[in-house]
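I would like you to help me understand the sequence and structure tokens below and explain how sequence relates to structure.
___
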Amino acid sequence: MPEQPLVLVGEVIKPHGLAGEFSVKVHVDSPDFFAHVPCLYLRRTPGDRPRPVAVTSWRMHNARLLLRLDQVQGRDEVEQVRGAELLARPEDLPNRSDEDIYIHELIGMRVLLPSGKLLGRIESVNSSAGSGVGQEIWSIRTESGQEVLFPAHQDFVLEADRTTATVRIDPPPGLLELYLGEEG
């Protein structure tokens, strides 16, 4: 078992066929990652101990990644891991530029408005929300404990800095008023 925290790279969505293949919600930039990663870890529910697995095949089907693992055989076994997380060791992740930030690194980052005012901290990231492919929704917890669900679209995220653990956003009109009322 690795000592470092594992990084979420995908989630099991549902079986595809009878032979153990399943569709994956991908949390990495390219599905090619699954062709090269030496080992993945499968965790059924948060808190469970992840178990190592190997990718035996992968392919794209209707813009969806289909994956098969060495330790998951047949539709019944896929049903048992439906919703499970696919994790990887940080050292197995692809190289990235200085601007790239992994989802797990966003958690806890301070969120500033264009004025420099602190809005809150990112509490969680949901990449399955919304109707668009890859639309992330950040749950931002304000200092007063209120939750703001922020669509992390490139038009609204001004900058993110891993060094200072800070993200500066320009929310769409009306969003903060919706969640925070007059103080937004």
Remarks:
- DSSP finds four helices and 13 strands in the chain.
